[in-house]
Amino acid sequence: MKTKKMLIAIMAGLLILTIVFCWIVWDQSRRKLQQVKPDITVTVLDVGQGDSVFVEWSNGTQMLIDGGVDATVLNRLGEVMLPWDRTIDYIVATHPHADHVGGLITVLDRFTVEHIVLNVDVYDSPVANAFLDAVMQESAQIIAPRDLNLAGVRVMYPTDNVLLVQTDNPNETSIVLAVDYKQYRLLFMGDIGETVEQQLIQAQILEDVDILKVGHHGSKYSSSRAFLEVIQPEIALISAGKDNVYHHPHPSALQRLLNSGATVYRTDQDGTITIRLQDNDFYVITGNQRWTWSRWSAMLSAY
Ligand SMILES: [Zn+2]
Questions:
Q1: pLDDT per residue over 165-216, tens digit each?
Q2: In the chain, % of residues over pLDDT 70
Q3: What mean pLDDT is predicted for residues 101-112?
């Protein structure tokens, strides 16, 4: 009887030690993960023919700009978000086309979303209405572009300075965002074409841009020479599906981007494109990322 009690005591002691040990390892891992986090990570997700960009700040704030056409975005988010993270702080729906909001419907279904930025006025199509229904079911705060108040993010269009153009082309209603990090400027164009590019030039609000998410998947009607001459992008990111029926990106747009001095990355060739900005520097990684053991251990052993 006495031996049995001693055995139970030893087992209990071992269990407590194991729990304490696991907790210490977990806590250390968590701290190290936070240390190796870049100041901002921008990921152009490989969602096929569509657009989806995930932005994460080191304080944990996350913003998803568009969601591609279908549930592919969920797989891609699973590669950039930690497995237990089921919340996204901000979703921006640039405009109502299916290749931008289709996948957002699945995101709203799967994640808790706190803020949704959109132009309610320009939504009118079956997929846009399905998206709006999903938005209404989410208890998120709905924010008009001009009311977005997020540190480090500026809405460039539409604003009180650059009004929403009256057009039948939803592309030209895309919300344009700038993200600032130290001396770096990032610009996300949605599917904007030449009309709004001209408006932005005339409003004299453009400045030198380091990283450009190219407008409209690299279509020939976007990235005009005049626009590129003003912003002079260093890195140009194009989201397009392999062998897509629209033949995006168009050779003439690619040539204009190259002529402006930009290094071009494209999801149809490079897969997911990740840019990490940290310590007055940034670097680009291409290829879809998975949570392999080597990725975890590389992150943990970095410090
Ligand atoms: Zn599009």
A1: 998 899 999 999 999 999 999 999 999 999 999 999 999 999 999 999 999 9
A2: 93
A3: 97
Cis peptide before 249 (omega within 30 of 0): yes
Around ion ligand 1, residues with a beta carbon closer than 5 Å are 99, 191
- 192 alpha carbon to ligand 1 midpoint, in Å? 9
Q: How are beta strands 211-213 and 263-266 bridged, if at all?
A: unpaired
How remote is the CA of residue 100 from the centroid of ligand 1, in Å?
6
pTM for this one?
0.86
Strands 53-57 and 62-65: antiparallel
Distances (CA, A) of 71 to 55, 62, 77, 110, 187: 19, 19, 10, 10, 26
Quote the ligand 1 centre to 67 CA distance (angstroms). 10
Superfamily of the domain at 40-301 = Ribonuclease Z/Hydroxyacylglutathione hydrolase-like (3.60.15.10)
227-269: per-residue pLDDT in tens? 999 999 999 999 999 988 888 999 999 999 999 999 999 999 9
| Residues 219/253, Cβ–Cβ less than 8 Å | yes
Query: 157 to each of 20, 137, 188, how far by Cα in Å?
Result: 52, 27, 11
What residue ranges in the chain does DSSP mark as E strands?
A: 40-44, 53-57, 62-65, 87-92, 112-117, 141-143, 153-157, 176-181, 184-188, 211-213, 235-238, 263-266, 273-278, 281-286
